[in-house]
Design a protein that fits this description.
The complex is a heterodimer of chains A (361) and B (358). Chain A contains 15 helices and two strands. Chain A has 361 residues and is mostly helical. With 358 residues, chain B is of the alpha/beta class. Chain B folds into two domains: 124 residues, Rossmann fold (3-Layer(aba) Sandwich), CATH 3.40.50.2300; 176 residues, Rossmann fold. Classes of the chains: A mainly alpha (361), B alpha/beta (358). At the A-B interface, helix 4 and helix 13 of A face strand 2 and helix 3 of B.
Chain lengths: 361, 358
């Protein structure tokens, strides 16, 4: 029979290997699912993973799109990973992302149609503040009244969605929109547009911010006192308290940082790829980023790679849908498998598998 | 320089248009993009079914590619671009929120033709199409007014956009024609498709004494609730005949298939050009479902006459005298609303209680 034996310390080898094993298992299980749906599994997998990168017809467009799609995921996931490492669970990044877009976009629209070069930086600031403020609600409730930040942050997502619908229909609705919901389009307003910095690369300010966040988080965790406190709190909360870590300050800092980064992501998205605030602006980046954070092992470089991989499954998944006629649900299931297998093989990190002879009862 | 470039592009468009029939063996590739799942039971499913009817009509001459559950915004833009890159000739983008993405992508692919549902922005290679659902609302509103015993009818509204406000106004005007004492209750749900919310709204209105309910949302939940709790309703987007004869009195049916066939044919013939289509009962884009036998004979006859008069052009649902909600005159005696005003309608007509949310 098989027995699981807890390792004294998590295996470093398996920590690095599990994402690869999970991807492999997802490819196999996903292939089986595609085959069950009557599609050629090899072709489906190739369309998802290979075509967006190397197919002549699509690659020149899809490759830059990887950055566009991965940018917000990475930016949000980096913020989340800091809290997750310390055992602070911000599940409401989607709400902070929406609030960042509303605040950043709203500040911009308040100044329409000014062409001042200060508008975009001001929007960036407002976006970060919006996300930060939204994350401060669960942070303060947790530190003052010991509420559960998972529930509070999650429920605030739905509040943010209602606010988004309200401003899309009222306060920020475009006066030129013929009564239809949705704000003005930022892409048509140079001073507020988050443009592609180098044509044809997909690189916009949000992607730049994501890269900076990766480097910043790496330095923070490796070199900075706060990074040390985060790691220590995650590994041994009691020891952390004895060594002088102030849990209240850590909660406020981690939730605030992740909120601000999610808010930034929302602001860059609304002024760039999405273009306008509308009722359906939130496209689950905040939730998907949770998967990205774990897939990347809460490590900045891992998150960078995981964000790109996740973006690849989205873009390749879209290709597979209309090229091969796969249903959208199959692609979502495929992405779900990735997280499922990651968590499943995680067992190997913390446990050793032992084969032992069954004993007579 | 710009002019030359435009001329070259225009020439290229024409050249492709002319060249298309010459390579008739190649099937025309048509893409569809849906905002919800293709089996949502409502809006997206109806577009999907129309796409399938179009495919059936042309057989091997057409290849259909579809993408469901595409969020409005940046993702939609990418999906359209990838479809265009894959060699699709004509793309139907079937949700209002795809408007700006459609225009953006169309700019990059002057040889690909786009058809955007329910929007108002066109380009040389972008058409828009929508249906005059308010014509159907006139007929169902009239029936609702005649059938209520409590003099209270309810309206489950989705988003306060002109299309929905037109429907509410049309319903109110014609319910009053059948029954001057009627009042109209509106509940806003801010969703197109949420069976739970739609059922709750139905129940809430029944509790307030409403006994006939119209919906501008996509699921069958209102009718399912009425079937259990009593009261009357109507099919929306689809016939929903499974709820006849009670509680379903009639229905407004979206008929996209003929339009899809017409437009694909135009691409095949090389005659496609950008149009702004707003078809109603006359052209068959709005269908009125069979009248239930529980409706009294004279009401049925009157409703049928209204439907036929709208179809023949003898009657327009927005004919004066009509005032706006605040009492200011809108249409004089015998005056008919122009399409521009209807397309941007953000006000209630006189007699409706409550405000358009803002």
């Amino acid at each position: 029979m098989i027995r699981l034996e807890k390792r004294p310390t998590p295996s470093r080898l398996w920590t690095a290997l599990t994402p690869l094993v999970a991807v492999l298992a997802t490819v196999i299980a996903g292939g089986l699912m595609f085959a069950a749906l009557g599609k050629d599994p090899v072709e489906a997998i190739r369309t998802i993973f290979y075509d967006p990168l190397f197919n002549e017809q699509f690659a020149s467009y899809s490759r830059p799109q990887l950055l566009v799609k991965a940018g917000p995921l990475i930016l949000i996931a980096i913020g989340l990973s800091l809290g997750f490492k310390a055992g602070i669970w911000n599940i409401g990044a989607e709400g902070q992302y929406i609030m960042g877009a509303i605040c950043g976009g709203g500040v911009g629209l308040a100044l329409y149609p000014s062409e001042s070069p200060l508008i975009f930086p001001l929007m960036v600031l407002a976006g970060a503040l919006g996300g930060w403020a939204w994350a401060m609600i669960p942070a303060i409730l947790k530190t003052k009244f010991n509420t559960n930040e998972i529930l509070v942050s999650l429920l605030l997502v739905y509040v943010a969605e209602q606010l988004l619908a309200s401003v899309s229909l009222g306060l920020l609705r475009s006066p030129d929109g013929g009564g239809f919901p949705g704000s003005r389009n930022f892409q048509h307003w140079d001073a507020a547009a988050n443009v592609e910095l180098f044509p044809g690369t997909g690189m916009h300010w949000g992607v730049v911010a994501a890269f900076i966040a990766v480097i910043g988080a790496y330095v923070l965790l490796a070199r900075h006192m706060l990074g040390y406190q985060i790691r220590l709190t995650g590994a041994a909360p009691r020891a952390a308290r004895f060594s002088g870590v102030n849990p209240t300050r850590l909660i406020v800092t981690c939730l605030g940082l992740s909120g601000a980064l999610a808010g930034l992501a929302g602001m860059f998205e609304v002024s760039g790829p999405a273009g306008q605030l509308s009722i359906d602006f939130g496209s689950n980046y905040g939730f998907t980023a949770i998967i990205v954070a774990f897939l990347g092992r809460l490590h900045p470089v891992g998150i960078l790679l995981a964000g790109l991989l996740m973006a690849l499954t989205y873009i390749g998944g879209e290709l597979a849908q209309f090229m091969l006629g796969l249903p959208a649900a199959a692609i979502q299931a495929f992405q779900g498998m990735l997280l499922f297998f990651l968590l499943a093989v995680d067992v190997l990190t913390n446990f050793r598998i032992r084969l032992i002879k069954s004993e007579v009862a | 320089m710009m002019q030359t470039l435009k001329a070259v592009l225009a020439a290229a468009v024409v050249a492709v248009g002319v060249a298309a029939p010459a390579i008739a063996e190649d099937p025309v590739k048509v893409g569809f993009i849906y905002v919800g799942p293709a089996n949502d039971g409502g809006w997206s499913q109806h577009h999907h079914e129309a796409a399938m009817k179009m495919k059936e009509h042309f057989g091997d001459a057409v290849e259909v590619v579809e993408q469901e559950s595409v969020p409005e915004g940046a993702d939609a833009e990418r999906v359209m671009t990838q479809m265009a890159l894959s060699g699709v000739d004509l793309i139907f983008t079937t949700s209002f929120g795809y408007m700006d993405p459609t225009i953006n992508v169309a700019k990059k692919f002057p040889n690909v033709k786009f058809e955007h549902a329910t929007g108002f922005k066109t380009a040389p290679n972008v058409s828009v199409y929508s249906a005059r659902f308010y014509e159907g609302r006139a007929v169902t509103g009239y029936i609702a007014g005649a059938m209520t015993k409590t003099n209270k009818i309810g309206y489950i509204a989705s988003f306060p956009i002109p299309e929905v406000i037109r429907g509410i106004n049309s319903t109110h005007i014609h319910a009053k024609k059948a029954n001057p004492d009627v009042t109209l209750n509106v509940i806003w749900l801010y969703t197109w498709f949420d069976p739970g919310k739609e059922a709750d709204a139905t129940q809430a209105m029944l509790d307030q004494g409403v006994d006939v309910i119209l919906a501008h949302t996509d699921s069958t939940a209102p009718l399912a609730t009425l079937e259990k709790q009593g009261g009357y309703g109507f099919g929306q987007a689809a016939d929903m005949i499974e709820f006849a004869p009670e509680p379903r009195l009639s229905s407004i049916i979206d008929e996209w298939a003929p339009y899809y066939i017409e437009r694909v044919q135009a691409v095949m013939d090389g005659t496609w050009e950008s149009v702004n289509t707003w078809y109603g009962i006359t052209e068959g884009m709005v269908g009125i479902g069979e009248f239930s036998e529980v409706i009294p004979e004279d009401v049925r006859a009157e409703a049928a006459k209204m439907r036929d008069d709208i179809a023949s052009g003898a009657y327009h649902p927005f004919t004066g005298p009509l005032n706006k909600q605040d009492g200011t005159p809108w249409l004089a005696e015998g005056e008919v609303a122009d399409d521009g005003t209807l397309a941007g309608m953000t006000f209630y007509v006189e007699g409706i209680e409550g405000d358009v949310p803002n």
